[in-house]
User: What shape does this take?
Amino acid sequence: MTDATAADSAARTRRRCRLVREAVLEWRGRSRFTVLCFLLFMAAQAAARLALVVAAITPSIPIDGYANDGMMSAFSSR
Assistant: This one.
């Protein structure tokens, strides 16, 4: 990861955290359940992004010398 990419990623993370803090402060009069649902939604988004990154990387890793192309490799003839 280049320095510019790392700096951009860090800036996005800081901006996201600032947005969450502002939203929580703005919702101070709201119920805790509403704030908790919002934070849970933000965590689910982050987990989905991570899952997409892992899914993009995983197929390129060979397992037992064969390409990892899902269940089709288990049934293909050698």
